[in-house]
Amino acid sequence: MLRFFLGRLAVLIPTFLGVSIIAFSFIRLLPGDPVALLSGERVMSPERHAEIMHQLGFDRPLPIQYLDYIGGVLTGDFGTSIVTKRPILDQFFSLFPATLELSFCAIVIAVVIGIPAGIFAAMKRGSFFDQSVMGVALVGYSMPIFWWGLLLIILFAGILQWTPVSGRISLMYFFPPVTGFMLIDSLLSGQSGAFKSAVSHLILPSIVLSTIPLAVIARQTRSAMLEVLGEDYVRTARAKGLSTFRVIGIHSLRNAMIPVITTIGLQVGVLMAGAILTETIFSWPGIGKWMVDSVFRRDYAVIQGGLLLIAGIIMVVNLVVDLLYGLINPRIRY
Amino acid sequence: MTKKLTIAAALLAATVMGGAANAKTFVYCSEGSPEGFDPGMYTAGTTFDAAAHTVYNRLLEFKPGTTETEPGLAESWEISDDGLEYTFKLRQGVKFQTTEFFTPSRDLNADDVVFSFDRQLNTNNPWNQYVAGASWEYANGMGFPTLIKSVEKVDDSTVKVTLNQPEAPFLANLAMPFMSIVSKEYADKLEAEGKKEQMNQMPVGTGPFAFVAYQQDAVIRYKANPDYWGGKQKIDDLVFAITTDAAVRYQKLKAGECHLMPFPNAADVEAMKADPNLKVMEQEGLNIAYLAYNTTQAPFDKVEVRKALNMAINKKAIVDAVFQGAATEAKNPIPPTMWSYNDAIQDDAYDPDAAKKMLEDAGVKDLSMKVWAMPVSRPYMLNARRAAELIQSDFAKIGVKVEVVSYEWAEYLDRSKAKDRDGAVILGWTGDNGDPDNFLHTLLGCDAVGGNNRAQWCNEEFNDLVVKAKATTDQAERTKLYEQAQEVFKREAPWATLDHSLSVVPMRKEVEGFHQSPLGDFAFEGVDLVE
Amino acid sequence: MTDTATVAGIGTDPSLKARFTEFWFYFSENRGAVIGLWVFIALVIVALLAPWIAPHGPAAQFRDAVLVPPAWEEGGRQAFLLGTDAVGRDILSRLIHGTRYSLFIGTIVTTLALVGGIIIGVIAGYFRGWVDTVIMRVMDIILAFPSLLLALVLVAVLGPGLTNAMIAIALVLQPHFVRLTRAAVMAEKSRDYVVAAKVAGAGHLRLMFKTILPNCLAPLIVQGTLSFSNAILDAAALGFLGMGAQPPTPEWGTMLAEAREFILRAWWVVTFPGLAILVTVLAINLVGDGLRDALDPKLKRS
């Protein structure tokens, strides 16, 4: 196990370095000049421009800039935003809980609905239920979620007025962020109605963000179950007269869940990509929206730091999933 | 940890207090996140609304709803006869805000004013670079480092500013957000604690509202400053709910989640006006959108060609399609709300047939050109693409083929400056200080060729007029010069003037006392909620 | 797993017709796939005949008909079946022309990703060693980023526009092909027919592309359909974020981005472009599922 872990780590480090080089070189290639953008329509004199470039260190040779940058990253300094002039790591930590909360709810929805739906669809293979579930799943899988989000806003926030349009909590409630997770903070605040408000703000974006993972998990669960149900030992169990429930519950589920867990782990990347769109549509103050805004503001430093942090998170999650896979899969020994 | 606790305690106190009395909370659905809270470092209106107009004051202020200046932190001032020395007498008994993170021990004095200037102008001031990449764009853009010779404290309540040359718009410049007066005492405290960057995150000023908390990209909270020299505000709490999408802002306004919003979608204005719970204020903004020809590029170097193209543009169609009527057609390069606007000038009438003939007479055949469309929406031009497409089909009618091009915004700004640029550029300008110099000289003067002067147009007659006006202090004299300059402009047609957008501010019916600023600011001093 | 030979083929019977018959037998068992195929064919026809079917030009502006609702709504007009947008362009015509863009995007991106992925994958799988290590590390790096984020930043680097969006999407989709190809090549390399060809003196190139590759095609075809629909979705997302095709191109995502400001006032400008994306992507995914079932022996068995 330890050897496996170390082996993965040995792969992770060069990959992370590669990621940092890509993140670093991307933003040097970005057209448009972040310094010029600072002044908008107002033209900046070339001397002034050069001065600011110098202040920001953009006039030094690239390898030196890179070494400087990677040195900073290793000591936890991801640089400073060009626009807000605040440290990137600070901003990341203040925004990340919002994304995490949203992603967590989305994945919970996806798992809670997707896995049972997949199991039942597999058990009743070919039935109307199976076909409907798989049909819906395929529609979900094909969904342009930015459009789906707009439709839900029109319907639930616009016409029916059941949910708020955007944001994380009603402005009536105000309490200091303790954990950064609005659901927890609203409970801690003790203000009546705060939790309900936080939930109502979370519903639409979570549904939108869960759409694709839900479809993928339902499909994956179904096919994993089908495979397991076709195995000899399940047939044997059935022949022994074990009830369908017991067969599913004890024998098949555990084995079927192995690929499903991997699938769930792989959804982290999907969620991050989805968060970019979902957060933009719902004005959700998370890192997805932060990245999009930064791309449009040409905030070099934020794009660079954000890419690195996000890729880092995905890599770590994938590592954890790999380890988990090893733990639950008795057939794999490292 | 202690910091967290004090904040928590303070917030608790705030909520308890708020809950006890029927606190009036005013919610403004702002269009974006502020870049920071130190107005000197930034140029965006969003930042100024969040920092300068809430927390801070300036020596002079713009009278609410106008471009005229009135005394602010300076009670009075004297200008020497040569126009070089400005002596400001400061208002007495002005208190800085007491917040959870700072308690002032003294009133505003000359040290604060001198510090506020010096940190922007003097690169050796320890606060000149207090955060990485601090650049005082407005102070530099307005030429302050070369314009201002010295800023001295005469006594505790008197400050003398000496200029290197007379500059008529100087007083108006001092009323601009970037010249907000900060507390030297607070700065010293932060410096001693090694937390300088807090100046940009937790501001302390003399303004009507005190900063409480900012949750990034979501909410900014303020409370009324009880010690405000202009009197405590009628509302108790002010909240900026950051809502980037205009349709969403409208939705929140309708639902009563906010009381006032900026920049509605033009498409929604009709419905807003019809809504009994809302009211809508409209005013011509201090802006201009234009199509700047490159006057050094053939055949656009010929006045007749530029005139002909101007005559072919159906401005009304642009106003209708882009603004749904929420704009006026522009005939002059300055907006009608600005003094010295020359209303006697006749616009080139929309007449494709005459335009076609004029082009033929000028010997121009099979002309094809590029029209640059901005990639972003600005108040003066909500959708440049759409405008460009309209111009494209207008020009097609007189046999001119148009290719619409666009670049990413920073690149657009940069490339459009080039003297050898190919094509005509859609761009615009929003006034900073309400002075015509800020349009006519800044955008069309000879110094600005290769820079702000996107038409690359250097006309001696025009330039002489605007340069002379800049150095003249007598307003009547200046008005005359600017009126003449506008005549020259119209005759020479370096731009097709497109529109001045109306700034439309929808709000709940219960909002009282909001003054729409021609400068495009959203300032909430004096607002009230009346049920 | 036992009979991988069937992947290759369906290859026991050399005649093309028989291969196809077998394939079609499995494919047509899947009703959804057949429907998807028909829809897809219809879309291709619409795309090819766009200028002739569309009632109006995609850029034609009717200044007297701005934001006209669909024909069946009150105030709608027969001339504009699905209504018009903010500058009076017929939405139906724009959607019809948009079909061209979406299918074009899908085709180009898939081709780019497929060809690039196959070449790189075959090289990695065939040569192994440090070449393989370097290639796979680079692929890991690309896969470490969320695809849309990477595409977004790439487009920001290259400049917004359809071409650049396609390049960016192809780049982020391509590692999947590399991995698939490599795995397949590695599995095939040690098989008898390859060894035989090697002994017979076949060169590297011939071995890689003529001998091994045709036997790894099945999973690549399935992945190809998946990429096709992903490409359309990602391009639309980039268009929606303002980084893809630029207006006035009638690309569906770009149309949605333009329509956003009318979300509460004119539902039709928002609804139809999204629906078009959904239907197209769904059709392709249905076909993809059918292909997988027909080409994957594992599922065939169960």
From TrEMBL, chain A:
The chain crosses the membrane at residues 6-27, 95-121, 133-159, 198-218, 256-282, 302-328. CDD domains: TM_PBP2. PROSITE patterns: ABC_TM1. InterPro entries: BPD_transp_1_N (IPR045621), MetI-like (IPR000515), MetI-like_sf (IPR035906). Residues 96-325 form the ABC transmembrane type-1 domain. Its main location: membrane. The keyword Cell membrane applies. It is found in: Cell membrane. Keywords: Cell membrane, Membrane, Transmembrane, Transmembrane helix, Transport. SUPFAM superfamilies: MetI-like. It is a multi-pass membrane protein. It comes from the Bacteria. Belongs to the binding-protein-dependent transport system permease family. This is Dipeptide transport system permease protein. It comes from Aquamicrobium terrae.
TrEMBL record, chain B:
The keyword Signal applies. Residues 1-23 form the signal peptide. Residues 69-448 form the Solute-binding protein family domain. The keyword S-adenosyl-L-methionine does not apply. Its main location: periplasm. InterPro entries: Peptide/Ni-bd, SBP_5, SBP_5_dom. It comes from the Bacteria. It is found in: Periplasm. Keywords: Signal. PANTHER family: D,D-DIPEPTIDE-BINDING PERIPLASMIC PROTEIN DDPA-RELATED, PERIPLASMIC BINDING COMPONENT OF ABC TRANSPORTER. Belongs to the bacterial solute-binding protein 5 family. This is Dipeptide transport system substrate-binding protein. It comes from Aquamicrobium terrae.
TrEMBL record, chain C:
The keyword Transmembrane applies. Residues 99-288 form the ABC transmembrane type-1 domain. Coiled coil: none annotated. Keywords: Cell membrane, Membrane, Peptide transport, Protein transport, Transmembrane, Transmembrane helix, Transport. The keyword Transmembrane helix applies. CDD domains: TM_PBP2 (cd06261). The chain crosses the membrane at residues 33-54, 103-127, 147-173, 262-288. InterPro entries: BP-dependent_transpt_permease (IPR050366), MetI-like (IPR000515), MetI-like_sf (IPR035906), OppC_N (IPR025966). Belongs to the binding-protein-dependent transport system permease family. This is Dipeptide transport system permease protein. It comes from Aquamicrobium terrae.
